Amino acid sequence: MTSKSNQSYLCGQNFWWFAASFFLLFLASKSLGLTVGYALDDYATMLSEKGQMQDFFISQGRFTFALLQSVLDFSDLKQPQLASIGFFLSAGGFLLISWVTLAKWLEKDILLAIALGALLGAHPFFAEYVSFRQALFGVGVWALLIVGAITLLAQDGPVTIGRLCAASAVAAIASGLNQIAMAFFCIAALGIFLQKNIHLPPLRAALLAVRSTVLAGAIASAFYVALFALTVRMVAVSSDARTSILGVNDISGRFVDIAVLLMGIFGGSHPLVGPVAAICTAAAILVLCVRASTACGQWMQVLSGGIVIALGIALALLPTSISGVWWPVPRTLIAMPVAVALGIAIFSFGASRVQVRVASVALLIAAAIFSGKSGWLLENQQRLNRWDIARAREIVTKISEIRQLDASTPILIHRATWAYEIDQGMGLGDANISAFASGWAVDPLFEEAAGRRLNVKSGVQGDTRCENAPSFPNSGSIREVEGTVHVCL
Question: End of a domain among 378, 407, 429?
Fold first, then answer.
């Protein structure tokens, strides 16, 4: 596309319907996140000193994020303070990524454009990022960088090696904010290359698009590794297990992990999906896959859609799958809905108008369920923050009643758990879990709750100071031994 065709690309009637449904469901399902308290990372980030976070980000392979943090330090700003801007940057970035990936298949049917826009806007996997305020601005920045990268690929005519390398370089920089950006780049590239080959037989178009996508991903990954290696060479940093690569001996076990995860998501047992949304999505796909004709081309269209979904899901899971640490929390899966939406759009290309309408209604029902699931996650985050803050304040108050308390008083928290007695199933990975159980978040939690400098740490596992002690807030749950206050939860 030239700049002129870029303008027309976003001015079609279906684009505006897609954008309206995306934004409406995004705001309806996730705006609650702007009012909740802090996630684990936010406690530490808000109370960190300038220059403290860069080493941590680089150790995770997020070198661009470290640069962004340096700019914010220079500006006397912290990441959570830009969460509202990040919220809208993310919404706009994901909208454009999704549309550029799907556009050609959504030109003919407004209802399908509305349904897929609603589905992607409402999907709860991204809701976790809204509660992680320290990361949300960075997400918005890398989403816009990926928009820039795929715009280079989407221009009219064949993709030259120069444009491919330029797009890959931008994607590598975006991945320095978060490696999930690479998955978005590859899935969007797959959709773009499919659209460029849309005049070819479906299976051939799919195979050519796969080849081009693999090349784009390989170049972008090479740029990313080179930039990361250069950064580590220039700046001495500590290592982080999450940047390690899966060992050969662990590959078979990782395939089992992936299979269990996918069965949970598509089978409806995942807490953020549920059986109704899974059934509606599956029904939409099955309806679109039915073909009255026995023509080979029709069934090749279905086959190519299946290939695209399989490859797209693989690309969405790749950053998490190859990591030495298996941590498939919802925010690491946010590219998967785009991959599924791309497959659905391809299935619709040869389906009848009635099929598309029936499938669209099923997808709208799924979108409504997903919106509720997003609200469930964010509301639970809000409840958890209230519980953590209230308990931390109560502990500080009770300690102050029995002794003088200041920053020199060591406090050890024992027997902390991830959950409270009610709604113990609200935790998802490191989302919606108590900061009391996180050694690096517990001190910032207490300082945020009390508004004063304190010295709070997690007790060492196996410490017997709280053996047979009653649980807080019962009498005897706070003990002082040799100047150290032990709190037995």
Answer: 378
172 shares its domain with 232: yes
CA distance 411 to 55: 27
Domain shared by 358 and 462, yes or no: no
Print the domain residue range for 480. Answer: 379-488
What b/e readout covers 129-139, taking b as 16+ CB neighbours within 10 angstroms?
A: bbbbbbbbbbb
120's tokens: 């992607």
Nearest to 435 by CA among 389, 383, 474: 389
Tokens, residue 84: 């509202």
Give Cβ neighbours of residue 295 (< 8 Å, ≥ 6 apart). none
Residue identified by tokens 């918005």 is: 140
How many C-beta neighbours within 10 Å does residue 156 have?
Answer: 10
CB-CB neighbours of 58 under 10 Å: 26
Residues 167, 150 contacting (CB under 8 angstroms):
yes
Q: Give tens-digit pLDDT for 132-169.
A: 888 889 999 999 999 999 999 998 888 899 999 999 99
Write down the H helix ranges in 403-419. Answer: none
Calpha distance 362→339 (Å, rounded)? 18
pTM strictly above 0.85? yes
SS3 481: strand
Contacts 24+ apart (CB under 8 A), 296-301: 297/201, 297/202, 297/350, 298/350, 300/201, 300/202, 300/203, 301/202, 301/346, 301/347, 301/349, 301/350
H or E element in which residue 480 lies: strand 478-481
Angstrom distance (rounded) from CA 204 to CA 177? 35
Q: Once rounded to an integer, what is the mean pLDDT over residues 246-251? A: 82
CA gyration radius for the chain? 24
Helix ranges, 108-241 (H): 110-122, 127-131, 133-154, 161-175, 180-196, 202-234
- 394 and 419 belong to one structural domain: yes
Residue 336 and residue 483 in one domain? no
In tens, the pLDDT along 418-428 reads: 888 887 777 77
The one-letter amino acid at 121: G
User: Edge to edge, what strands does the sheet with 455-458 contain?
Assistant: 455-458, 410-414, 484-488, 478-481
DSSP β-bridge partners for residue 245: 323
More confident residue, 473 or 132: 473
Q: Is the pLDDT of residue 456 over 70?
A: yes
